Each structure stands twice: as C-alpha cells, then as structure tokens.
C-alpha cells in the first residue's frame, strides 16, 4: 500500500463526513456525509464567496491551495482544462463557478442545527433580491468587472510581474489586458463612478432603514449578504483603490458598518470551525475518486434551445467552456445532463463535472478531420 493511499485513508477517517479536524480541534457533528474540497487561492475574491459560505454554515471542508497563475497541476489531475478559481468538489461531483457552487451547497447539504441555511426561502421576494444581487455583482458586465479596474498596480508587485500579466492576458484576452496609461486612467474613472453608484444604492436603498443585514433579519448574514458584499468588501480593503474624496466611510457610513459587521461575523464563524486542513493535489484527487456522487443525473431537457439546435443526446461527446473569461480552456466529456440551470459532463477520468448554463457554452465535439 502506497503512502498516498494511507494518507487518504487517514483523511477519510479523521476529517471527512460528519467531523473534521482542524487547528481548533474536532468540529461539531453534522448530517452530511460527502467530503467537500475547495480548490482556491486565499486572495481570490470569488473564492472568498465560497469560503465565507462554508464558514457561516459550519460546513467542514478540505482545501487544496492553488497558485494564482497557471499552470495548476492539481486541477490537471482531475482532467480539467478549466482555469477559473474556485472549483469545489462535493463527493465525486465537481462544480465550476460560484454562481452554481453556492446554490448547490445550499441544496446538497440540508439545513440543520449544525448547518443552518443561508439562502432565502423559495418563492419569496427575498429570494428574488438574492438572485438579482448575484447577477449584479457576478455577470460579465457586473460590478466586479468595474472593480478590477481599480487595482492599484503601482502598489501591488504581483501586477508588475510579466508572468502574471501574461496569465491575465490568457484569462481576459490580450485586448482587455493591453492598454496605454491613458486607457487605464479612463477605465479607472468609469470604475470609480460605477462603484460609487453601487455603494450609494446600498446606502440609500437597501440599508437605508438601518437594518443590519440585507434581508432585514437579526440572525446574522445570509446568502444575500454574501452576494451583495463581496465586491465592496474587496475593493474597500485594497489600499489605494478608491478615491476617498468620492467614496469614504464619512459619505457611506451604513455600507462601511455593514462590511465591518460581515467581516466580524465571518471571523467569529472561522473561530468556531477552525482552519480547514490543506491537502495536496494527489490527496484531493484520491478523496474525490473514492467518494460517492451526492446527486443523481439531471437528464437532458429536450426543450432546451441548445439541445434542439444540435440534436444533443445523453452520452454525446460535448465541449464546455466559459464565454466571459478563461474561454480558451475547453473541457470535453459525455453529456450527463443539460437544462436551463446547468450542464453536466462525465469525464474520461470518471468524474462528474457541473457548470452553470449562464456564462458557459455547450457544443457537440466535432469529429477529427480524416488523415490523408
């Protein structure tokens, strides 16, 4: 028996399922049985959305830390070309994109005393607001796309690294990355305006009545708060990102107080559940490969436009890739499910990969040209 196998068995015995070991000791028993692994790097603002969610719900998980730029051999071990962070596994299923990861966590890990729900109740205006906040912040032309233009490049050595700049050209496309100082300054002006308008909306509309949390509950932050706060939390924490004559605590006291309350709640939750155990790529892959699938196949909806257009059937070889960033990295697998919400692939490595339909493209894999 190899060392990696022994390590995985030890992980499964002590950290996966109902109880996890961390720097804070064993954590409270929960009801879910499937191991959860978060692939991320700590300063990714998208990954923070998922880490916050896991902490606030008290969900034990393992983490597989990744470099901020390619290559990422740990992801390649899963047979994935997808380059965006975070990636989350639940059991044997692998989920791409926080727009799918967060609702899947809410569904697949049932509400309990140990893991209280964060999502708004079904068929409510609160759920509609939660969804709209997600679209507002995460869509291709959403709030984060503006916030990226506020990165203080002169103060962040990573942004001056040629390797990082080449990586981001691959991520965003060369045209979006290469620009003159004048173009960068113009984008910053527009970004300041967009962030100011967003913070003003939160100050004068969403939080205007003095509520502590977006949905008005006194029970702590909900998923709606995660959806609404993450960009503001990130950009207000970047030294030199904001023009304080336009955006400041004095101008927007309710928003700044909300961000601080949220950070305090997350820090307190982290203190209760402790730090997740860090595993390497081989350990993580072995855990996923030995787990059970947490959900059944969704089936292929024959009424979906892409299904009709290409005559897609379950088991067909298809390509899937994101259309807004990282689009040069295409994954291939056999179609296991497709509906208005998600596309599901069974990969050659034996994993089931889920991606949201929004922001991702699905096409049948073209047969190779015959050789002459």
UniProtKB/TrEMBL annotation:
Which Pfam families does the record match to this protein?
Answer: DUF7962, GST_N_3
Which protein, by its recorded name, is this?
Answer: GST N-terminal domain-containing protein
Q: Identify the InterPro entries for this entry.
A: DUF7962 (IPR058268), Glutathione-S-Trfase_C_sf (IPR036282), Glutathione_S-Trfase_N (IPR004045), Thioredoxin-like_sf (IPR036249)
Q: Which ranges carry the DUF7962 domain?
A: 147-270
The segment(s) forming the GST N-terminal domain are 38-110
